[in-house]
Amino acid sequence: MTPAMREEAAAAAAEAGLADVVEVRAGLYEDLPVPDASVDVVLSNGVVNLAPDKPRVFREIARVLRPGGRLYLADVVVARELTLEVREDPELWAACIGGALPEGELAELAAGAGLAGARVTERFDCFGGAPAGSRVSADLRVGSVNFFAERR
Q1: Domain limits at 77?
Q2: Are residues 21 and 63 in the same domain?
Q3: Same domain, yes or no, for 110 and 53?
Q4: Which residue has the higher pLDDT, 125 or 119?
Q5: What DSSP string runs through 77-101?
Q6: Domain identity same for 144 and 124
Q7: Are 14 and 53 found together in one domain?
Q8: 85 phi/psi in degrees, rounded to 5
Q9: Does 112 lie in the same domain as 74?
Q10: 31: buried, middle or exposed (CB in 10 Å: 19+, 13-18, 0-12)?
Q11: N or C, which end of the chain is more exposed by having fewer CB within 10 Å?
Q12: Are residues 58 and 86 part of one domain?
């Protein structure tokens, strides 16, 4: 998050009356600036697809969640593995497609990190008619999901 994004998030928490229970910090997804088992909820909106080391991101989420802590993730997914050509296209990375995973891999990554109850809760056609979505083959079926997992 940029400083402006962190300021906006803190302002939104304050406006919602949550300033005393929400803290917005700068950090990297692969190295979160919080102690082990200290977080109740991790929210992620379209970030995991941009991470080069997705297993590390999920391990880090599992590390910081308390027992009973929850992950709520919204991200771009695809129906099948991306070709090397798509993965190397800077425009498709900028459109959050180049790093997208097949939907089923989210649950595999969560389970591999020790998270339980991993499941997609909603699916969306986020690229319908978008220029970036038209640059990949139709069978790729680029979309987005809401995803849930928890630490037991």
Answers
A1: 31-151
A2: no
A3: yes
A4: 119
A5: EESSPPPHHHHT-HHHHHTT-TTPE
A6: yes
A7: no
A8: -60, -45
A9: yes
A10: exposed
A11: C
A12: yes
Same domain, residue pair 63 and 135 = yes
Instruction: Examine the pLDDT at 139 and tell me if it is beyond 80.
Output: no
Domains in the chain, number: 2
- Which residue matches tokens 């991101």? 57
- How many alpha carbons lie under 13 Å from residue 147 in its C-beta half-sphere? 31
**Contact predicate 142/81, CB 8 Å:** no
Residues 96-102: what's their mean pLDDT? 92
Structure tokens of 124? Answer: 């969306």
DSSP-based three-state secondary structure for 11? helix
| Residue listed under structure tokens 């979160």 | 32
pLDDT tens across 21-78, in order?
A: 988 999 999 999 999 999 999 999 999 999 999 999 999 999 999 999 999 999 999 9
